């Protein structure tokens, strides 16, 4: 059998029907773009845009590429660049998941991290910075936001696939907008073959696009945690004129929907897919007649295991589903009763304490014995123990701090802040039962959640 180029497996992704979620009178289908070679729908546009640059003579063998990406376009470009022998520099906002950054670096791409809290026109804005790097180095700037090969990939590929797979019965298509290529290409295709098909925009809360489709006005952008969709401007390559319905979806609803899809449908979806499916469910439930609706699993949730599928991360973002109790317990990030506490036993070794700190990305551990907190050990304690000559095999009891200060769960907030002023960590204890730690970062995370 002749070898097959990996890139030839881009597209022709399967469509499945969601069976257990409440879709009202409608059938809701998802196209599993997560099954593309790099794991996302962006493989389609990466090949399309690089093909176009080659055909136009702008990109020659061994050439260099630069792109600004806040999501999966970088992964897709890194895959195609690696397969075809191009050098690639990606300018990435610092909210991109660690898994994605590690993935593109492993594929050989150079990563330039920049700020995610600045808008167009700021020198650190990721698109402006990418353009500047391309100009300075002579590399080809892919520029997905202005590149006509972006929507063309969906007009000539994704749209016809959906039409064929659903036997020409498509009442609505739900998509998000990052660069705008997916929605624009699909809307052009369906305008030709099925003008009655609704084009539905799913937009993160904080993005300006949903309101733009309703009023034509570009409002003030906020911030959001969902990756890959939503914008603070209208991408030049996008055509939103055919959008008939637009839904604004909060981070909380997006993440909860993604987790529900995994729990009830068995599909591990990414954060933008949570937004799309949440919007599709709203659309379906608003209908009075049966319709066939399709949306996308844009990428796999395996890139977000450290984020939206991590209960502690959700809690740190103020998005936990935990019911508030109205006292200091609400500030504890890792509670024993939720199985989230990371601790160490006094007879376990310093090596084990160090490994747990590294694994769980924490700087200190409570030392528990029979359910009671008998000490604390942090990075400084480990360092001092080694300087005193203790081996990594020594028990934690020989290095832990035992001068502890505790607070009852109903203690006033002033008491907690007073502990912080003295450089202490708060141990919350109720009638001898250890409920958890509160660090300065836990308190700051809670305050940020309130401000958002």
TrEMBL record:
<keyword id="KW-0663">Pyridoxal phosphate</keyword>
<keyword id="KW-0129">CBS domain</keyword>
<dbReference type="InterPro" id="IPR046353">
    <property type="entry name" value="CBS_C"/>
</dbReference>
<dbReference type="InterPro" id="IPR046342">
    <property type="entry name" value="CBS_dom_sf"/>
</dbReference>
<dbReference type="Pfam" id="PF00571">
    <property type="entry name" value="CBS"/>
</dbReference>
<dbReference type="Pfam" id="PF00291">
    <property type="entry name" value="PALP"/>
</dbReference>
<protein>
    <recommendedName>
        <fullName>Cysteine synthase B</fullName>
    </recommendedName>
</protein>
<feature type="domain" description="CBS">
    <location>
        <begin position="336"/>
        <end position="392"/>
    </location>
</feature>
<comment type="similarity">
    <text>Belongs to the cysteine synthase/cystathionine beta-synthase family.</text>
</comment>
<dbReference type="GO" id="GO:0016765">
    <property type="term" value="F:transferase activity, transferring alkyl or aryl (other than methyl) groups"/>
</dbReference>
<dbReference type="InterPro" id="IPR001926">
    <property type="entry name" value="TrpB-like_PALP"/>
</dbReference>
<dbReference type="InterPro" id="IPR001216">
    <property type="entry name" value="P-phosphate_BS"/>
</dbReference>
<dbReference type="InterPro" id="IPR036052">
    <property type="entry name" value="TrpB-like_PALP_sf"/>
</dbReference>
<dbReference type="InterPro" id="IPR050214">
    <property type="entry name" value="Cys_Synth/Cystath_Beta-Synth"/>
</dbReference>
<dbReference type="InterPro" id="IPR000644">
    <property type="entry name" value="CBS_dom"/>
</dbReference>
<dbReference type="GO" id="GO:0006535">
    <property type="term" value="P:cysteine biosynthetic process from serine"/>
</dbReference>
